[in-house]
Fold:
Amino acid sequence: MAAPQAVRPTLALTVGEPAGIGPEISIRAAWALREEANCVLVGDAAFLALTASLVDPAIRLSALSVQALRNGGLPHFGKDRIAVVDVPLAAHVVPGTLDPENGRAVLATLDLAVQGVQAGWFDGIVTAPLQKSTINQAGIAFSGHTEYLAEKTGTPQVVMMLAGALSNPAVNDQPYLRVALATTHLPLKDVPGAITQEGLGRVLDILHADLRAKFGIAAPRILVTGLNPHAGENGYLGREEIEVIEPALAAARARGIDARGPYPADTLFQPKYLQDADCVLAMYHDQGLPVLKHATFGRGINVTLGLPLIRTSVDHGTALDLAAEGLGRADCGSMEEAIRAAMHMVAASKGASGANPN
Structure:
């Protein structure tokens, strides 16, 4: 008797800023992975149909209205086409040219995706890049996907983590690198004051819990960087390691979390340390992410931890200049990886075997 086929997860793909590369890479990635995942595009159906026809005439889309979705749920379209939930734009799209009139529609795609997960239509969300300025110019205060999704789901704290398959797996026994951040988009001068024992404790709790629940790692090993050069060098280059980070790690270990450090950031990212790590926790944005983005060469993804839902995203921006040059120039590799990561996380969350991407 043949083994039963795995059920394809259903993922909402919000296509992001319409004038950027988001619509194209969403369509291409969803079509490429249609055998593995039921990716539902959330955006302007007419605009996406036109874009798809120009990308590849073989791509088939089937549109449905938000009202039809709310009334009858998500219909089954099969693997020969991609479903599109129509969230109409307010203005005509000129590739590479931002239009604030479309800002509210972009935000509406996120609202619909969250509602869809809460209603059981979607198993998770994958987001294409959007332009913060467009939404703010539309009259809505907006600082980013991460903060907005936290607010929409009533989540008091989330953790930003980037991950990706290493371009040269030989440098690491685990060919997958994860880097989480203790702080995110802050001016460098504000970082020391934002790092507290309590705050680090919450970040470690979230990181430990989601590595287990959403990545299927039974006993996560977390390596933590220091804040200062040489991890403070015993207090000569700063005392945050002694007064804040070390006590936070000790308290986390007492709660059963395998958190080690603090390590000097300039020497931590090498095989002899990473081979024993499931994730690195860096203290600030540009301490950990340049290393990851270099190591994964455009195949990295962004994951929001701590949410009551699965959300992954690409690790790049809207690339307006590339969009202005026309279709066919954007690389959809990061979007494909974001979809695959969401698939793994769905499987791990449901207790499926083989969920760990390592």
Notes: The CA atoms of residues 235 and 338 lie 40 Å apart. The mean pLDDT is 91.
